[in-house]
Design brief:
Length: about 230
């Protein structure tokens, strides 16, 4: 009965084509889930997108702060200021893969491209250009009030009276400070020996005033322009 039915089906070309189509579709239906499962997961993160909060943690854990300072403000004789980021994300990643000078190499095994994008986003969040997008930037600071607060809250004890930093105590934070939002973010959740300053101790307005004071500090005269040292 089976053989007769099969031979009868073979004699019907339309039925045979239909059978082959069903078998082919069935094969696809079986193989498609397997192929999808085996396919590598796609990175849905938009190119160049980064998470600043995650980048802050990576900046600290990867040792970037040791050369560039906790706020990427640079450390004289060790590492330069890197906020805002000196390169766009692709060039930033390429440089860290093939650095020059004393900068050490970061392999993909140590920090992935996505993690470097996060660090780039953190550096961007500290830059003055990010003020326009920052909630704290809506506040207007008063430099005179900021100077008084800088002394009252003990900022000068670690960072110097002009924010110039003190070797072994605190990094330089002025003149040309990082963005107001960057300072606010850092003092709320600092790293290293920096104590946290909650809003009830240093309000957002206080931050705006302190930022205004640091911006008002005049850069020192270049030593090359001081006759006593050029003779």
């Amino acid at each position: 009965m089976h053989n007769n039915s099969w031979h009868s089906l073979r004699g019907n070309s339309n039925a045979l084509r239909l059978l082959r189509s069903i078998m082919a579709l069935g094969g696809v239906a079986l193989l498609l889930p397997i192929a999808l499962a085996a396919a590598p997961a796609q990175n849905t993160k938009p190119p160049g997108a980064g998470n600043a909060a995650q980048g802050k943690l990576l900046f600290e854990s990867a040792g970037c702060a040791a050369c560039h300072g906790n706020l990427a403000q640079g450390i004289s004789g060790v590492g330069p200021l890197i906020t805002p980021p000196p390169f766009a994300i692709p060039e930033f990643i390429n440089f860290l893969r093939r650095p020059s000078g004393a900068m050490r190499l970061f392999s993909k095994e140590e920090l992935s491209d996505a993690q470097l994008s996060d660090i780039h986003a953190y550096l961007q969040s500290l830059s003055p250009s990010s003020d326009s997008d920052a909630p704290a930037a809506n506040l207007t600071g008063n430099a005179e009030t900021g100077k008084r607060l800088f002394m009252r809250d003990g900022c000068y004890e670690c960072h110097g009276i002009l924010g110039q930093g003190a070797n072994g105590y605190g990094p330089r934070i002025g003149p040309d400070p990082i963005s107001m939002q960057g300072i606010k973010n850092y003092i709320r959740k600092p790293s290293g020996n920096m104590p946290p300053y909650a809003a009830k101790i240093v309000s957002d307005q206080d931050v705006a005033d302190i930022h205004a004071y640091l911006k008002s500090v005049v850069r020192p005269v270049d030593i090359k322009n001081i006759p006593l040292f050029t003779k």
